[in-house]
Specification:
Elements (H helix, E strand, L loop, with lengths): L19 H15 L16 H10 L3 E2 L5 E2 L12 H12 L1
Antiparallel strand pairs: 1-2
Length: about 100
């Protein structure tokens, strides 16, 4: 006799009937597409971002968020651009505290 309460619980090793990583990938993609990525003047500067987040972005392709609020996926050499004045101002306030 099958207990209806446990009818939907799968056994370890069973292939799930729905959801799974495909659902998670689709949901992640929707979240990324919904994020605001800033065009404009921010593109002309190098920004301050936590080192761990840069490494994570390099491994996963996940966007990062700078101190100034800009969100993007790093791909350029930051040495080729001047430092973002907003990031620099915020950073200096943080280290002075």
């Amino acid at each position: 006799m099958v207990n209806p309460v446990f009818d939907s619980i799968s056994e370890p090793g069973d292939i799930p009937s729905g959801g799974g990583t495909a659902t998670l990938d689709r949901e992640l993609q929707e979240l990324i597409e919904a994020e605001q990525f800033d065009p404009g003047d921010h593109e002309r500067f190098s920004h301050y971002v936590q080192k761990e987040k840069i490494l994570e972005s390099a491994l996963t392709g996940k966007p990062v968020k700078a101190l100034c609020g800009k969100k993007w996926t790093p791909g350029r050499d930051p040495e080729k651009f001047p430092i973002c004045p907003t990031c620099k101002e915020i950073y200096e306030k943080l280290i002075d505290e």
